[in-house]
Write a structure and sequence with these properties.
Number of domains: 1
Radius of gyration: 27 Å
Number of strands: 0
Distance between the termini: 45 Å
Structural class: mainly alpha
Order of helices and strands: HH
Helix content: 55-70%
Shape: elongated
Length: 111
């Protein structure tokens, strides 16, 4: 403690630190969001577009091959969609468990 009652850091004991500018979100989360966007929407769209392009070239083999590539692009999209549905269900289940624990402790359902 200094003679004026402040700690060596310049704050009084128990005082809250001064609020500074809001912290900017980390760069990593922005990169992660872009990668997820690319994986969820851009990759399936590109694969599907390539399949449609191959189908447009004509010929029976091109139609079958292009249809296979289109179905692969749609499969990528729907697998991502199913994963997001599953994760949302897990979050909902965790919230329900927390609410039940709260009910057990306090005797009422949380608001």
């Amino acid at each position: 403690m200094t003679p004026d009652g402040c700690s060596p850091l310049g704050r009084r004991p128990g005082a809250r630190p001064a609020a500074g500018p809001p912290a900017s979100p980390p760069r990593r989360s922005a990169l992660k969001a872009r990668l997820l966007l690319g994986l969820r929407y851009v990759l399936p769209a590109v694969v599907t577009a390539v399949g449609v392009g191959i189908m447009a070239m004509g010929g029976e083999n091109d139609l079958e091959g292009g249809a296979s590539i289109v179905s692969a692009g749609l499969a990528i999209y729907f697998l991502n969609w199913l994963y997001r549905i599953g994760v949302a269900g897990d979050r909902e289940r965790e919230r329900e468990d927390a609410a039940r624990e709260y009910f057990d402790r306090h005797g009422r359902w949380p608001r």
